[in-house]
Amino acid sequence: MLVARPGVTSATEWVAINACLAPAAALAGQEVVTSEGLGTPEVLHPVQREMAVRGGSQCGYCTPGFICSMAAEYYRPDREADGADHGEVHGPNGFDLHALSGNLCRCTGYRPIRDAAYALGTPQGGDRLADRREEPPDAPEATEFSDGERTFVRPATLSAALELLHRNPRTTVISGCTDWGVEVNIRGSRADCALAIDRLPELRGLVVTEEYLELGAALTLTEIERGLDGRVPLLAELFPQFASRLIRNSATLGGNLGTGSPIGDSPPALLALDARVVLSGIGGEREVPLADYFTGYRQSVRRTGELIKAVRIPLPLAGLTAFQKIAKRRFDDISSVAIGFALDIDEGTVRRARIGLGGIAATPIRAYHTESALEGQPWTRSTVLAAAGLLRAEGTPMDDHRASSRYRAAMLGQSLLKLYARSIEEVVA
Amino acid sequence: MIARLDAAPKVTGQAKYAVDHNFPGMAYGYVVLSTIANGELAAMEVTAARHTPGVLGVYTPFEPLELRTPISQMLGEGWVPLQDKEIAYYGQPIGFVVAETFEAARDAAALIEVSYTERPALTSFAEGLATAEDAKTGPRGAPSLSVLAEGVESIEDALAASEVTVDATYETASQNHAAMEPHSAVAVWNADGLTVYTGNQGSHGPADELAQALNIEHSAVHVVNPYVGGAFGGKGATSTPAFLAAAAARNIGRPVKAALTREQVFTATATRPATVQRVSLGARNDGTLVAVRHDSWSSTPMSRSFIEPTSHGTSREWYATENLAISQKAVPLNIPPTTFMRAPGEAPGSFALESAVDELAVALNMDPIGLRKRNNSAAPPGEDLQWSSKHLDECFDIGAARFGWSERTPGGRVDGDWLVGLGTATAMFPGLRFPATVGITLRADDTAVVATSGADPGTGLLTVLSLIGAESLDISPEQVTPRLGDSALPPGGTSGGSTATASAGSATMVAASTVIDELLRLASSPGGPFDGRETAYADGRVFADGRVFADGESMTFGEVLRAMERISLTATGSTAPGEERTKHSFGSWGAQFCEVRVHRLTREIRVSRLLGVFDAGRIINPTAARSQLLGGMIWGVSAALHEGLDVEANGRFANADLAGYLVPVNADIPEIDTHLVEYPDTLLSNVGARGLGEISIVGVAAAIANAVYNATGIRLRRIPMMLEDLLED
Fold it and tell me: What is the C-alpha separation between B152 and B718, in angstroms, rounded?
């Protein structure tokens, strides 16, 4: 479905999110449009017309979801046509194909669906949803719903949220709901009290100082991606590989760290960036290096009653960075291995190395041995080969149906070789 | 023009699938599944569940809903839940909770405590091979069969005498149809009987099975499914929710809605079996095949519901060879039921056979296309019946030219960090049709209804009916209203075996000519507008004096009916496979082309280009045909790279959801194209179409594996491919 959200380049943007993961209560006071609201069989919306004409709908069961994802991209204010078809990246009309990566079609009509997406024009005058972008969206209301047994609370301020969390430590904190929503759907999980923090203004800042970049914990990944606009190359490399646009439109950085999953995609990148986590409780704030944050499988130093407020990335950034995610499916897949690299190389010598790893231990980890082996050494093939040998041995990867431990270990080493090959290419270029 | 008639309701969210139907007083059902793979239910403690607020009924094998075992013409003996306490697989339906809301039913279901008398479960296919048994004789004949040249004693002798041989074993994983619409039903009883809204592949079958299961008259059951969210063979049998919702609705006297959750779909329906296949090929140095041996093992549940006929679906028919031996074994395991899935037999079978042919080409140092063309068959080995219409060589020629096959080198090429290879494979799917009856109603408003009970689960049959109906009635498609998905309609058009177009299409033609004859008789009958005169029909009009010409004296069929004060005129037409099968063999053919890129460091495999060229008879709706063919080819990519059910030792599927059971997303799909050589096959049916729902998946996985070999020199013999299989030590 489409939700009116504050825009980056216009007052409102139409954002596509997974309806199945969004609690209805979290949408109170907000404007929502579904495929039924875009057009009718008699008067099709342009997106619906292209899908119908080009055979993009077969059994039709996935179609409304594709229509919404496609409509969000149709209305993206900074979508610019350059007239060139970039195949799997974007169409001549500027349509970013990543907009559809979160939708599955089992008739696998992906080519006619792409044909439809790439044939879309720009919204014409009088288009209700296009005009709507000029006015700010309705802000989510501070609300409290209760059925007597269970409560959903959306407080207005961070202090109110912390107060509630302090009073009732069993509160389930929810932000984008892309993790908890799955728990609800698959395991039938219930929260006695669900606390929505995703619209708290204190958690939604994107601040740049001399010393650091601060990313609010409740910013969606899409908001960070668009707000940074490539300013942190390592994150710019991470975001397109993080689940799918549909998930990134809801998922937050705070949530990704808060769930503490060993296979979350952001920790390896943030570990490489030496990120620090700002934790907030009723007693005040404290800052913890992310490298010390995880203590065990889905365990962290975050105390009961504390919320992640922000993530701080120290400046200046390292010169050579990369994020590598190895997964079976191109997008919307859990990584077999994820690796973040941030290296400072000065006059051919590695001055500082930070390597974050995911998917190879009970928590995301730093590759300390490899970092030490690189630091102070010349950035040469022989250094890299030696360090790659160490990197293979970092962590305790498992065998599962995605990959064997042998493959995971091998990929750690290969990832450093891949980074080296790329850095040489960059120098040559 | 829109590509299909049902597109507008689908793109606007107006199409109502089974669970979109709601009725006053409706209750919700939730299915409970077993958590062991072999044993017996000892007890089910349901007190807490029964006392959960909103719960209306809790049904188990200890307190069952009465259901009788139905026997279907197409599928044999069926299975109905809750009738005994035996557990034969993990995830077997063992209970049903009905409540005022879905959530109440699900929460109550979680409170049921089940105790089992557990027995050791056999869940490993590899271990089960030791106790394999001969497969039962199925629709494709005896499990073992051999054709030997005169004077040849055995296939072993033929292989031993061959100048070049290859011999390898291939593995394919168990798969699930994973249609986007989970199996579901809404059941409503009223004075006339039972109506069940449930997605299926032809509503006549479920209506019959439900009538038997519920022990009521066939005429009292009405099954409706105007929209079906994908089927692929997985909705041929009546689903557990349909049986349980119907029985529970009768029990509580209220409509009941039930749907499987995504996770439940993986075990409470049925899957494609896993296979192991050993293929031995013997050839002369010039590439002429002299011996083909293909031994297959298929996993099957303890009920032996279905085996994957991989040898029969491929080596039995594809290549000319003097000597052929095939065998099919079944490996019974404590796994969920198995059933047809898109190109059953052909899809996994072609991975083995077409990989082996590529291995033979390497051994012979021959071009893989040249090798295939040299062994092109005019008829299945050992049979006299020639292919009715076969243009496989042309498919290869067109494909090779379009794909740039001549630029292929034996060792592939390198593009930056990527190793690039090209591969090819043959595709084949039998040309079949099923009995079908179609009704045509001419209406006084000059429109016509073309109706049969079958389904359009995304295949495009609805639009095909309107196009063939319009052509047969010589009117415009806009005048035709096609109807499907209702067991009250004449039985036909079942979605299966790629038969619907040939079956329902040919019956439409018969119905059209019958209704036109009736119309002409009516027009010239006493009191008719052309009383006593000769009449002829063209362009939707009845012409006087049997002469059709512009400005001739004529009336539209609607005018004739109005003149006769008739609202409508209806006739049915029936067709069935028959004599043609004693004169020819029938099959669709195709050539698959694939380019892959393997990363030299990470070994990630990307399929970068695909082309399929197919010979599938006449094409009725080119846009929908293209979508179908592309979809099948992408299924092939998915089978090669992604799809596979992982069975844990206790029989649980480790990846029974769409996060773990990977199907492709848009970005996994490369540059992909199709081409059709169109030779109408009127020996199969008057329509000339052979159907194309399945052929395009066939051969793709082998083409990918062959391209990977071309790129890397590594032969992958199991799918889905694991990246570590490409690691170099």
Answer: 33
